[in-house]
Design brief:
By secondary structure, the chain is α/β, with parallel strands linked by helices. It contains 27 helices and 29 strands. Helix 2 (20-37) crosses helix 3.
């Protein structure tokens, strides 16, 4: 407590016992003490078994967290698997201490904002750190601590900034640094000249590079090269000497500046005046160079291109750090994760969202929590799993949005720590969301892993389903009246089950289907002799489903051929789909399950005359059944921007909008484009479809047969073992039927495994094959 009152910065770990994992962390913590002491930061261990510090020596997270204090204020808390060694501890602690001084940018636009603010004020140092907590991250943070008052430091982990800085291969795992000369830029329209550091991101290299950036672009001298003393020589950097004559002074100066700009950060440039009596170099030489710890070498060059070739292809190559390429080749594959979600989460893995608005359940509180609310939503997750971490932020947003809604509580269970709960609840895929109600079987959430979808699902779950209707007047209200309008903002579709009486054998199955679909669909039940009136004159007998899509839209009626709850669920999900839907990222998987070719209209502006007319022309043949073999649909490129990429992938270009295509996803992947020169009218569309089906139209594109395989080859660990001890692994590995060896041959070193590796049964709904 005395330490906290001093206002000094301390990195403190609270623990009460030591296991093998904690022991390794403690060793690294002790080693980091000397390094952090240089920056005025103390490293402290508190033994909670002797001194029980209030708020920090209690709770489930006692052993897994370390805290950074400034006085009594907690600046940041870290999972100990984030601060896993000395480099990680120093880099994360310094980054937290310098949080207001070091800008963290994700996009080029954010970097440009920093540049605008820095112009005429200070230069910028930009560091791209693909993996946080490694030595490169520590080197950048240490440089920021030392030079932070002189330069504006910027850190990024994103590939977009790499492309902006001119790196062709934005997937490279190499850490990089740039110096942006913004201080001398007076106009906001002018860019800040940037210079890349071409050596590995190490502390000594950063120090040297920053000194070089402060050195004059071209140094003028009036002595022989061997007598010149410039900062580059003391920094062990090659120096290029050029000789200037009075007759060509301006041209010589321009040449020296051009070469200096191209070699900046790697070579110093000195311009020596031949007019000085102190210059004794023979006139036959017009240039010289001096490598670190070597004598000056003189030469005669005919052009600036020869100078660049000499340094870039010969001299600088000799002084490159030889193990840089070796390290890059060895580790580049290991730093590429399986997909974009995994990669983005891994790069930001220390930024764990705050779960304050979500109740974290334990074995003691689980049962009482899920039985005391009308609805308890529970997220089962692994804190280190990529998809779980990506979804947690959305889950927190839903919890915040539902704050104040009575009878609803959002909770979470970390299955990495509470395996007993997850096993008891039969959780075998992650993340999984379950809906609990008192005295009712738990219901799994099958929707999209996003804020809007989950929020809507929970609100729909509060609607009792099915609504029992007792009269035709209530049926009308449910389909298009007051009962309809009550929840119209959640769903525009109502599905009504019509039965002759409550004794009908299908009523129980319908009620069970409604329970299974609660949160997804608003269902009503009318079991009455008046139900016959609602199907009178139609070719449908009771029991039946009546579908309403809102006031003024004709009802749709379907017979219920089966009394099985699962069959009724499938039927209800199918009939509630729109006949001419607007495709979105959220609803696409449901429509693709129909397995039909897409008759897909791409529009730019829904309210434009051409778009409105095109939509109307496609609707005309719908009622006649002439498009039954297709799924007529449309994409609004304004609301669903990815549609433009889809169209470009289909055709290789973006045609004038509106554009109509047939996409045969299931049968060969051919794409046909409605001729842009022909009017988009119903009769022309039908004739074009006829020509496509008869093979009279040539495909305009082909959907690539893309595989979602790993980005790099798998490691064959058994083969590696065989190299060390020939035939050892072959003898030990059990044989498979095809003669191969079983075992973990396809598990990459950085690939994660879960105790229950089965895929999420709803995974097809999270992805699409559009």
């Amino acid at each position: 407590m005395e330490r906290m009152h001093t206002g000094k910065t301390s990195f403190i770990y609270f623990g009460n016992h030591v296991n093998p994992t904690i022991k390794l962390f403690m060793e690294q913590l002790e080693m980091s003490a000397d390094a952090l002491e240089d920056y005025g930061i103390s490293v402290v261990k508190v033994n909670c078994s002797k001194d029980a510090i209030e708020n920090y020596c209690t709770g489930e997270k006692l052993m897994t967290k370390a805290h950074l204090f400034r006085g009594s204020e907690v600046l940041r808390s870290f999972d100990i698997d984030t601060v896993f060694d000395v480099n990680a501890i120093v880099s994360h602690v310094l980054f937290s201490v310098l949080f207001n001084e070091v800008h963290y940018v994700h996009t080029p636009a954010e970097l440009l904002r920093v540049e605008r603010a820095a112009k005429q004020n200070s230069d910028i140092v930009v560091g791209h750190i693909p993996v946080l907590g490694l030595p490169e991250h520590r080197a950048l943070m240490e440089a920021a601590f030392v030079y932070g008052t002189k330069y504006q430091f910027v850190q990024t982990t994103g590939s977009l900034v790499l492309k902006h800085m001119g790196v062709a291969d934005s997937s490279s795992s190499q850490a990089r640094l740039w110096f942006l000369h913004c201080k001398g830029v007076s106009s906001q329209s002018d860019p800040c000249p940037s210079v890349p550091m071409r050596k590995p991101l190490k502390t000594i290299n950063i120090h040297t590079f920053l000194q070089l950036m402060e050195a004059p672009l071209v140094t003028e001298a009036e002595v022989d090269p061997s007598d010149v003393d410039v900062v580059h020589i003391h920094l062990s950097v090659p120096v290029l000497f050029l000789f200037s004559h009075a007759q060509t002074q301006h041209l010589d100066w321009a040449t020296a500046q051009t070469l200096a700009l191209q070699l900046r950060g790697e070579v110093g440039v000195v311009l020596i005046s031949r007019e000085s009596p102190n210059v004794k170099t023979p006139l036959k030489y017009n240039a010289a160079y001096r490598l670190p710890q070597e004598d000056v070498k003189y030469l005669t060059l005919n052009s600036a291109e020869e100078v660049m070739k000499l340094f870039k292809e010969e001299l600088l190559q000799e002084h490159k750090i030889e193990d840089e390429e070796g390290d890059e080749e060895q580790w580049s594959d290991l730093d590429i994760l399986d997909d974009e979600v995994s990669e983005s989460v891994y790069r930001d893995r220390d930024h764990m969202p705050d779960l304050e608005s979500v109740t974290e359940l334990t074995s003691d509180t689980f049962q009482t929590t899920v039985t005391q609310n009308d609805i308890t939503v529970v997220l089962f997750y692994f804190k280190w799993d990529a998809v779980c971490k990506a979804f947690i932020q959305s889950y927190i947003e839903v919890a915040d949005a539902l704050e104040g809604v009575s009878g609803v509580e959002l909770a979470a269970v970390d299955c990495g720590e509470l395996t007993d709960i997850c096993s008891d609840q039969n959780i075998t895929s992650f993340p999984t969301i379950m809906i609990y109600r008192p005295m009712v079987a738990a219901q799994p959430y099958r929707g999209m892993l996003g804020t809007k979808s989950l929020h809507t699902f929970i609100l729909l779950s509060l609607v009792f389903s099915p609504s029992h209707l007792s009269s035709s007047a209530e049926v009308t209200s449910f389909l298009e009246g007051d009962l309809y309008n009550k929840h119209v903002d959640l769903s525009a579709v109502r599905v009504l089950g019509l039965f002759s009486s409550l004794q009908d054998t299908g009523v129980t199955s319908f009620e069970e289907a409604a329970r299974l679909l609660r949160g997804e669909t608003i269902l009503g039940l009318f079991a009455n002799k008046e139900a016959e009136q609602w199907v009178e004159g139609l070719s449908v007998n009771l029991p039946a489903l009546l579908v309403s899509r809102g006031p003024g839209v004709p009802y749709e009626v379907y017979s219920i051929p089966s009394s099985s709850p699962t069959d009724q669920v499938s039927l209800i999900k199918r009939v509630e789909l729109d006949h001419f839907p607007e495709l979105t990222v959220e609803n696409l998987p449901w429509y693709l399950e129909l397995g039909k070719p897409l008759l897909l209209l791409f529009i730019g502006k829904e309210d434009s005359t051409e778009s409105t007319k095109s939509l109307a022309e496609i609707k005309r043949p719908l009622s006649s059944g002439q498009l039954d073999s297709f799924l007529p649909c449309w994409i609004h490129l304004g609301r669903t921007p990815v549609g433009r990429s889809v169209l470009e992938k289909y055709l290789g270009f973006v045609p004038p909008l509106p554009a109509l295509v047939i996409s045969k996803l299931r049968t060969g992947g051919e794409v046909f484009l409605f001729p842009p020169e022909r009017p988009l009218m119903a009769k022309n569309i039908l004739q074009w479809i006829h020509d496509v089906e008869n093979g009279q139209e040539q495909p305009a594109g082909l959907i690539p047969d893309g595989k979602w395989g790993p980005p790099v080859p798998f490691f064959d660990f058994l083969a590696i073992m065989d190299q060390e001890a020939p035939t050892y692994a072959a003898q030990k590995g059990p044989k498979m039927k095809n003669g191969g060896r079983e075992g973990n041959r396809q598990q990459r070193p950085n690939q994660k495994q879960t105790p229950h590796p089965s895929p999420n049964p709803q995974a097809p709904r999270q992805h699409s094959e559009l």
